[in-house]
Amino acid sequence: MADRWTILAVPLVCLTLLGSLLVHWPTLLNTFQRPKPLSNPRPKLKSTISFNIANMPTIESTIPVNVTTTTVLIWYWAFGFNQGISPNVCKERFGIPNCMLSDDRSLFPKADFIIFHNRELITGQQRLPLQLPRPPNQGWVWFSIESPPHNGNLRPFAGMFNYTMSYRRDADFFMPYGWLAPRLVGPGMTVEDFIPKEKSHLACWIVSNYADHHRRTQVYNRLKQVINVEVYGGGAVNGRRVASEDLLPTISHCYFYLAFENSEFQDYITEKLWKNAFIGGAVPVVLGPPRKNYEAMIPKDSFIHVDDFESEEELGQFLKQLAGDRERYTSYFKWKLNYTVTQTSNWLVEPECRICTKLTTLQRPKVYRDLQSWEWK
Ligand SMILES: *[C@@H]1O[C@H](CO)[C@@H](O)[C@H](O)[C@H]1NC(C)=O
Ligand SMILES: *[C@@H]1O[C@H](CO)[C@@H](O)[C@H](O)[C@H]1NC(C)=O
Ligand SMILES: *[C@@H]1O[C@H](CO)[C@@H](O)[C@H](O)[C@H]1NC(C)=O
């Protein structure tokens, strides 16, 4: 998805363009569609809840032991995707109590937090309500799930935001693209039960935003000299198009999935890993932040990092060997016995509701005097 948002970095984005983007990239729409009820609901929230595993940062910390309702105001909907929420949505969908989420601007004077999605600010489609008297305890939240090159110039926002909400672990409101939740598997289940049976392709890559200057393109071009890479995605890469409902079945036939990010920044680990590779059932070959960064989020023996190899030749040879060594290949799936992948269900509602679970650990007051530097650090 992040790739598609890249397009919007063009300063003068008009709604017509946006409309056509949506037609052509149904996955983007999927991400923002009103979510279906969770088939596997989260455990009921008690006083504390945590998805903390090993060294993974917590997604949720303490629920406020506080009967005061927190009001979270969405100043405008990202990309205009109005979610038509009821004020009780946080309780209904995520079990988060005392948390009112609304897009009713008349709540400005009493809102505890106001969410501003970055894209509309940098394109000039929306502006901060600087003309309104800002209550001193109100927190303005900068929200983006894009990597720094796609967030525009943030210098004009120096000193305006109190909090950040992003995939960065050091954001005030950390909301990753995905995370692992502990699970207990039934007796008798073995790791083989988690590996799709029919593997017909060695390595697969689905790419929607193909650009020669991306490092991933260069790695792909060299890797395909060594091994066969099935590439999907049309456009310049000239691969087969794959409909969104065929995405995971397609990947399940691959031993390895190239989970190559469009840019390399700390914590920028997207659905290419969580959904395409992990849920699709292929071992991820990642290109993105350094291995250590991945290891803070996922077990170290669950993925292959391109930087582990001197060359694409070496990487390609390794993948060939690994695919032929059942025992070793299987070991990359061991984590599935203990963890399950969770993804953010709806970026426009879920992180906003989760603000209410972070109140006790929040620094107050806080101001981002130099958001641009924070973003690029
Ligand atoms: C309850 O929440 C309000 C607003 O979020 C906060 O100002 C207050 O300090 C909280 N009280 C306690 C006991 O945590
Ligand atoms: C992972 O799950 C397996 C099978 O349920 C269990 O035997 C093992 O102890 C678990 N490992 C960890 C680290 O929890
Ligand atoms: C938020 O930032 C504004 C502007 O810098 C500041 O005046 C206010 O005290 C801050 N509020 C909180 C809750 O940190």
Protein described:
The chain has 377 residues and is α/β, with parallel strands linked by helices. It has two domains: 55-176 and 345-376, no CATH class; 179-342, 3-Layer(aba) Sandwich (Rossmann fold), CATH 3.40.50.11660. Helices cover 24% and strands 16% of the residues. It has helices spanning 2-7, 15-24, 26-32, 89-94, 118-122, 215-223, 247-252, 271-279, 291-295, 312-323, 326-331, 350-354, 371-376, and strands at residues 70-74, 99-102, 113-117, 139-143, 163-166, 173-174, 178-182, 201-206, 229-232, 254-260, 283-287, 304-305, 339-343. A six-stranded parallel β-sheet has the order 2-1-3-4-5-6. A five-stranded parallel β-sheet has the order 9-8-10-11-12. Strands 7-13 form a two-stranded antiparallel ribbon. The two termini are 23 Å apart. Residues 1-56 have low confidence and may be disordered.
Features:
single chain; alpha/beta; Rossmann fold; 2 domains; 6-stranded parallel sheet; 5-stranded parallel sheet; globular; disordered N terminus; binds 2-acetamido-2-deoxy-beta-D-glucopyranose
The beta-strand count equals 13
Cα-to-Cα separation, first versus last residue: 23 Å
Q: Cα-atom Rg, whole angstroms?
A: 21 Å
Uncertain stretches: 1-56
Biggest sheet layout: 6 strands, parallel
What's the name of the CATH homologous superfamily of the largest domain?
Answer: Glycosyl transferase family 10, C-terminal domain
Please identify, by name, the CATH architecture of the largest domain.
3-Layer(aba) Sandwich
The strand order across the widest sheet is 2-1-3-4-5-6
CATH top level of the largest domain is: Alpha Beta
Percent strand: 15-25%
What percent of residues adopt helix (DSSP H or I)? 10-25%
Q: Work out the helix count.
A: 13
Q: How are helices and strands ordered from N to C? A: HHHEHEEHEEEEEHEHEHEHEHHEHH
**Category by helix and strand content:** alpha/beta
Q: What would the average pLDDT be, to the nearest integer?
A: 85
Which kinds of small molecule does this entry bind, naming each only once?
Answer: 2-acetamido-2-deoxy-beta-D-glucopyranose
Q: How many structural domains does the protein architecture include?
A: 2
Instruction: Provide the CATH topology of the largest domain.
Output: Rossmann fold
Shape: globular
